[in-house]
Design goal:
Length: 292
């Protein structure tokens, strides 16, 4: 018994530094964010306790809910794009010629910073001499749109580089999962006369479904808290047409010096993300996982 207790204390000592690090970098900042949301504070002067006023104002804030809608639209497009990434991974895993080169090309965006990607796509979307509009004019389009200046299309234009940025990440995950499928199963299916499409649909996809469910959660959570590329490309404009929850929070806290209100928005973003994550996990869980 003493030996068992001794081992537990040793294990606790090894785990303690990691727990302290998690507490300092994650839990304490989360608690402080919720606490600052109860204050009227500009980041410099003394804080004034105002209770839940910031949270109530946030719930009644039309701009906040508009930015939330944009974040959910990004989450929707990110989730749908997973099907495209999965299809590409199935093709790459089928030993086509040049698959190694293609896999490396898909990973290139992961090597670039978000700021570099934003600057690259700003030039692509440039209305006067950008590559995209140059192609459209060459195809006979007389007045191609100003992609980042028109409120009706700017949000969807920004989705393109975001989805391009993370394509390699998800393709790599699916490719690794597909390569872990025993080749004997695939060969047995071929011998039985299964077509490549049947093998993909009835053998490969069921075996990597758990990985696919995880990527759904990653895509949704990542989209709800996405910030950097949108802020660099448009700053949430024009007139809030590309604003998301994270960029709206940043503007309130660091541009308008409404740190209390910005903290409340940030804490609500955390709560919304947690709720959505739980819902998605419940919706994608199997019967065995629910019982467990």
């Amino acid at each position: 018994m003493n030996k068992v207790m001794s081992n537990k204390w040793i294990i606790a000592l090894y785990v303690l530094p990691a727990l302290l690090l998690i507490a300092v970098l994650i839990f304490i900042p989360l608690i402080l964010t919720g606490y600052y949301g109860l204050m009227d504070w500009n980041g410099i002067a003394a804080m004034e306790f105002i209770g839940l006023e910031n949270y109530i104002n946030a719930i009644q804030d039309a701009k906040f809910w508009e930015s939330a809608l944009h974040s959910f639209l990004l989450a929707l497009f990110s989730t749908l794009s997973l099907l495209v990434y999965l299809a590409i991974s199935l093709i790459l895993a089928s030993k086509i010629k040049g698959s190694d080169l293609l896999r490396k090309i898909y990973l290139l965006p992961m090597l670039l910073s978000s700021v570099a990607i934003a600057q690259l796509w700003i030039k692509v979307f440039n209305p006067s001499n950008g590559m995209l509009n140059s192609i459209l004019m060459a195809l006979g389009v007389d007045n191609p749109p100003a992609w980042l200046a028109e409120p009706s299309i700017v949000l969807y234009a920004i989705f393109i580089p975001i989805l391009w940025q993370y394509a390699g990440f998800y393709i790599l995950i699916y490719y690794a999962a597909l390569k872990n499928i025993p080749e004997s199963l695939v060969e047995a299916a071929r011998i039985d006369g299964a077509t490549p499409l049947q093998i993909a649909y009835k053998i490969k996809l069921p075996l990597i479904m758990s990985v696919f469910k995880v990527t759904i959660v990653l895509a949704i959570v990542g989209s709800l808290k996405y910030f950097d590329l949108i802020y660099v490309m448009t700053g949430g404009g024009p007139n809030g047409a590309s604003e998301v929850m994270a960029s709206y929070m940043y503007k309130l806290a660091f541009s308008s010096n409404e740190f209390g209100y910005g903290s409340a928005i940030g804490f609500l973003l955390l709560i919304i993300t947690l709720i959505v994550t739980v819902i998605v996990r419940k919706a994608t869980a199997t019967k065995e996982e629910i019982q467990y």
